[in-house]
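Supplementary Methods. Inverse-folding protocol.

Structures were first reduced to a discrete structure-token string of length 287. This string, shown here, constituted the complete conditioning input.
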């Protein structure tokens, strides 16, 4: 479903580069995606960047700190429940004053949405990547929009409720297989797909730890892997701290994710994450 008329600022942007994700991943170093939540209720920074001027300031800061990609979301996915569903019009209203300017900052923008209508308009406004926390399995129109626009898509694992009895890697792999079939049927090119185990989504804290520990098993799909452990609750279970005090745990998780095969890291804290990744790579190189 798309809105009949694009709202101001969402006219078609012709300057979208071809598959920016593949170009970045080909650099052979971990790629850092900076998170910008234009929401009142995100789990770690809800309300902090709801004001458009503050959101743009944060977008500029993330890019200046070295973000390779900006991931902009206007609806909290609330990995731990309690998200307020946002109608498409409200999601667009939140994006309108931010997205067109963010697109001009010089790094590819990914749109974190589960709605085909939002994705279509965001792509027209210059968003270069679609990030779907339901892996093309929630809004069945999203695969078509991604295929028609020829943009890369991040397929994230998710489930309504955690089941501690599951072998979480087998569950994630089965979910990916379903998503990849939906993608293939819609005509999405395989080189346009990134897979993400969805840390914190429909998982117990132990299963989030397992997803990072056994990430390497998901390399069998032959697709780039993205991990977003930033500030998530499993960190609190290991070492209690509120979301804004989980940087150390986030970095530890992301370094291990990279060691286990992650090509892209999604983080709220770009400067600190990049520093950790660079030191990690330098130490490995100094052997
Ligand atoms: N996590 C969040 C949101 N989107 N997308 C991908 N691909 N992977 C993730 O791990 C992921 C994601 C949750 O974090 P955040 O955006 O900070 O919170 P909220 O959804 O509450 O806005």
């Amino acid at each position: 479903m798309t809105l009949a008329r694009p709202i101001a600022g969402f006219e078609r942007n012709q300057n979208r580069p071809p598959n920016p994700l593949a170009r970045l991943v080909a650099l052979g170093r971990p790629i850092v995606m900076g998170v910008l939540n234009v929401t009142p209720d995100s789990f770690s920074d809800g309300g902090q960047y709801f004001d458009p001027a503050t959101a743009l300031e944060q977008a500029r800061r993330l890019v200046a700190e070295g973000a390779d990609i900006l991931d902009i979301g206007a609806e909290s996915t609330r990995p731990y429940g309690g998200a307020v569903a946002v109608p498409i019009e409200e999601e667009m209203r939140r994006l309108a004053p931010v997205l067109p300017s963010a697109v001009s900052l010089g790094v590819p923008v990914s749109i974190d949405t589960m709605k085909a209508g939002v994705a279509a308009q965001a792509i027209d406004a210059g968003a270069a990547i679609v990030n779907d926390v339901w892996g093309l399995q929630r809004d069945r129109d999203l695969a078509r929009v991604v295929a028609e626009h020829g943009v890369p898509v991040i397929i994230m694992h998710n489930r309504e409720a955690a089941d501690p009895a599951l072998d979480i890697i087998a569950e994630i792999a089965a979910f990916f297989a379903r998503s990849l079939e939906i993608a293939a049927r819609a005509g999405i090119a395989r080189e346009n797909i990134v897979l993400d185990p969805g840390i914190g989504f429909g998982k117990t804290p132990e299963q989030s730890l397992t997803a990072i520990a056994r990430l390497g098993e998901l390399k069998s799909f032959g697709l780039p892997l993205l991990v977003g452990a930033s500030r998530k609750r499993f960190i609190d279970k290991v070492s209690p701290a509120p979301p804004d005090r989980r940087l150390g745990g986030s970095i530890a998780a992301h370094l291990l994710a990279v060691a286990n095969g992650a090509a892209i890291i999604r983080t709220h804290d770009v400067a600190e994450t990049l520093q950790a990744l660079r030191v990690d790579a330098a130490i490995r190189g100094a052997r």
